[in-house]
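agent: user wants the full assembly modeled, not chains individually. Plan: 1) parse entity lines 2) check alphabet per entity 3) run joint structure prediction 4) return tokens. Steps 1-2 passed, two entities, 473 residues total. Proceeding.
--- entities ---
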Amino acid sequence: MDIQAYINSGELELYVLDRLSPDERRRVEQYAEQYPEVRAELGEIERALEQYAVLQGQATAAPAPSVLDHALQRIRSEQAAPTTSSVARPATEASRSGGAAVWALAIALALALLGIAYLLVKSQAREDALRQSSTELLEARQQFTTLQDDCDSIQQRVEENRQQLAVLASVETRNVVLAGSPNAPESRAVVFYNPTSEQTLFSAVNLPAPPTGKQYQLWAIDGEGPQDLGVLDQNLTNDALLSVPYLPGVAAFAITLEDEGGKPTPDLSQLQVIGEVGP
Amino acid sequence: MPATGNSDNQAVLLKLLLAKDEAGMRYLFDHYGGALNLIISRIVTDPEVGQEVLQDVLMRIWQNIDKYEPDKSRLYTWMARIARNASIDRVRSKSYRKGGKTDQIDAVVVNHDNLSESMSVEHIGLAKLLNNLDTKHRSIIDLLYFKDYTQAETAEALDLPLGTVKTRSRRALQQLRKLLKHELVILFIYSLLI
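--- prediction returned ---
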């Protein structure tokens, strides 16, 4: 093996330039171990290329100092990270883990604060929802009470109607037609009088609306004269059927037009309608 | 070439880097930053991307210094290889087409011509060195050293038979070494004067 010829072949240059196949590379390494001349020559080639690159690089390709700063920053941040471990620097390692503990504590604290904030917001929201639903419940209860009242009153009305119907349907009931007086010849009213069940019903069949300040008053006339049965509602409708107080032994029913509020004794000059109770 | 003291510097640098001392990074950057950047800039043409690659290279050196085998190569040779591989990785990741290489060769040679003209006074020595280095020798060193050209690609680019790439690189390196020796002696004398 002519070592000088091998050195002169240019293979060592290409080895340093990393331009050889893996087989060729192994051969160079093998020779370098075997022959000090090869090793020395490799060193010289490396040095030459190195100096060439350093000279030319310093002259033409000096990098911005910020590149070093950024690299150092990355190195420091990687050293600060707990993942990197270095047995060689226990002191730094300890302070590093101390830093990590502080970080962990800070993160835990931040998480706890976040959690509390979350719970506060959530409980606030829950409280709002609770208040809302209790308000709704209250409203619903009020609505229910109103409905129940309505229902009660309707039931009462139904009961009244049923009783009135029973009065109307009874053979014992006398139908008393109150005919118009000369004061109001067109006016009409009806009284249903039942001495057996002791009930009296009244319906204004055709009574014009009373003048302002005036009110119709209903009278029952018995052996002692006219008895007050009360005033009629000013906006009483003609088809309404009213239950009025029952008096026994009534001979006739009459309506007079009186001042608002009514009077203890009728002004017969203001007689509107009158009807006798039949036998 | 013990006159330069390079061997000692290399040992000190290695010791600092192995100890994870930031001073090692500063020395590395000051002394070899330009050389590594030169390798990168010849492959990665965008200067901004080049800076990113250099930063990555510094990080790789820092992180993998324990994988460097001192008996196999000089520290700088190992670092230069990292720089070239990182550059190639970046260029390939951006799917640079292989076909583009042939077009860039002329640019490389042209750049070299501009280089000696644009160089400042302090680098007159280098300019002289580059001028004295035969164009054909400079081209082969630059294609093989600074760019990711294979032997075959270099042969094609320089219109050489494949078999002569080895011998041509040998002659180129021999000339370079001679010129460097001369240049470094001058630099050494300079450093004594200043």
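agent: reporting back. Chain B has two domains: 7-92, 100-193. Chain B touches chain A through 63 residues (CB under 8 Å).
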